[in-house]
Amino acid sequence: EPEVTQTPSHQVTQMGQEVILRCVPISNHLYFYWYRQILGQKVEFLVSFYNNEISEKSEIFDDQFSVERPDGSNFTLKIRSTKLEDSAMYFCASTGGSHNEQFFGPGTRLTVL
Amino acid sequence: GQNIDQPTEMTATEGAIVQINCTYQTSGFNGLFWYQQHAGEAPTFLSYNVLDGLEEKGRFSSFLSRSKGYSYLLLKELQMKDSASYLCAVWDSNYQLIWGAGTKLIIKP
Predict the structure, then answer these.
(1) Fewest CB within 10 A of the end CB: N or C in chain A?
(2) Best residue in B33, B50, B96, B104 to probe A by mutation, most A CBs within 10 Å?
(3) Rounded CA gap, A25 and B11, in Å?
(4) Is B96–A45 a contact, with Cβ atoms under 8 angstroms apart?
(5) What gap in Å lies between CA B98 and CA B33, rounded to an integer?
(6) What is the pLDDT of residue A98?
(7) pLDDT tens digits, residue range A53-103?
(8) Each residue of A2-30: pLDDT tens digit?
(9) Quick check: B91 and A99 CB within 8 A?
(10) What are phi and psi of B53, to 5 degrees?
(11) Do B102 and A102 touch (CB under 8 A)?
(12) Is-contact B23 B70, C-beta < 8 A?
């Protein structure tokens, strides 16, 4: 069964460093999403991406964040200068249609020291 | 502001039935999802409701009343593996998925 994959599973970085979180969505899906979940808190929408551009973004998704689909398979989230409060689990999701079930990847746990 | 309310925690007995409620106030509505999340894992899809009424899928059913801003997830014949958090999420008018904090369901033998 096709699945969304994410790498790395765990990333530890120093405050102020740049990190790139990688996702490979399900191959025939068209809509891609990033969410984050701070430990013990609710899932939060960051950004949606369709047709090689951002469809929607939340208030959390400020200038420190960017997304890219550099090739036909990868979908990346970049945080330019990490802050302590960026420590969270970051989930990538994809769907074949905008109103359909979103399939989530296993997540990347980001720890900022 | 946008708000989704669910009980923080519920306890039920193996083999029993449990109903998890969700109320929402969002800027627009384009559907409501229920997801299951085990600790440390990603959410997995359970159901999607966009019209009023009951959607049944095996042991799980989900109900929606748009006029009341209300949904519930009904779990029957509870099994120990159903111990997890259950997340209610709403598509708002911008098709952003707004999430509730989740209901932690504890199943006792």
Answers:
(1) N
(2) B96
(3) 35
(4) yes
(5) 10
(6) 61
(7) 999 999 999 999 999 998 878 999 999 999 999 999 999 999 887 667 889
(8) 899 999 999 999 999 999 999 999 988 98
(9) yes
(10) 125, -170
(11) no
(12) yes
Q: Token pair 């904090």 is at which residue?
A: B101
- State the nearest Cα–Cα gap between B91 and chain A, in angstroms: 9
Q: For residue B100, list chain A residues with Cβ-Cβ distance below 8 A.
A: 42
pLDDT tens by residue, chain B, 109 residues: 789 999 999 999 999 999 999 999 998 999 999 999 999 899 999 999 999 999 998 999 999 999 999 999 999 999 999 999 999 999 988 888 999 999 999 999 9
Which residue spans within chain A are E strands per DSSP? Answer: 5-7, 10-13, 19-24, 31-37, 43-50, 53-57, 65-68, 75-79, 88-95, 103-104, 108-112
Paired strand residues for B32: B49, B90
DSSP sequence for B29-57: -S-EEEEEE-TTS--EEEEEE-SSEEEEE
**Binary contact (B44, A98; C-beta < 8 A):** no
Confidence (pLDDT) at B2:
83
Rounded to the nearest angstrom, the minimum Cα separation between A41 and chain B is 6
Judge whether A1 is closer than 8 Å to chain B, CB to CB: no
B-chain CB neighbours of A32 within 8 Å are none
